[in-house]
Amino acid sequence: MGQYTGGSFFEIIEHTGDVGVRVWGRTKEELFENAGRAMFCLLLRNADRVQPRFRRCIAVRANALDELMVNWLSELNFNFCTENEVYREFKVLEIDDQFLRAEAHGETFNPEVHEAKIEIKAVTFHQVYVGPRRDGPGWEANVIFDI
């Protein structure tokens, strides 16, 4: 991947014992939406089969933008682990470096429809980066997941 073309929005980062993603977005809002989509592509073999049957409103706070990304993805993973919610679409409604309010659209995990791929134990701060793209216009994030 490497180039953001609108269709390629993330790539897997190889990491010993864990897995990570490098995500791109044209805007900060799109970056966080794509990070949510990328995480569910890791969690499910067939994330494209998730239907947007309900909407979950999510708000997270942090002291800095990288912490905001970790808290955002941790909240999505918490809902997956505790409520069996899987998401396909995300809409960031409000964001600054310390607050995010968004909607996640999805459905309840159904093992007859959805196929789990990996289990994410935690979203880590290890090598986390959220900021302007280092190789062009737009935004970029690197996130490592403890699996």
Report on the architecture of this protein:
With 147 residues, the chain is α+β, with helices and mostly antiparallel strands. The protein contains two helices and eight strands. β4 (85-96) and β5 form a beta hairpin. α1 (28-43) runs parallel beside α2. The radius of gyration is 14 Å and the shape is globular.
What's this entry about, in short?
With 147 residues, this protein is α+β, with helices and mostly antiparallel strands.
Structural class: alpha+beta
Helix % is: 10-25%
Along the chain, the helix and strand elements come as EEHEHEEEEE
C-alpha Rg, in Å?
Answer: 14 Å
Topology:
Elements: E1 10-15, E2 18-25, H1 28-43, E3 54-61, H2 65-83, E4 85-96, E5 99-108, E6 122-123, E7 129-132, E8 139-146
Antiparallel strand pairs: 1-2, 2-8, 3-5, 4-5, 6-8, 7-8
Helix pairs in contact: 1-2
Highlighted features:
disordered N terminus, 147 residues, three-stranded antiparallel beta sheet, 2 helices, five-stranded antiparallel beta sheet, globular
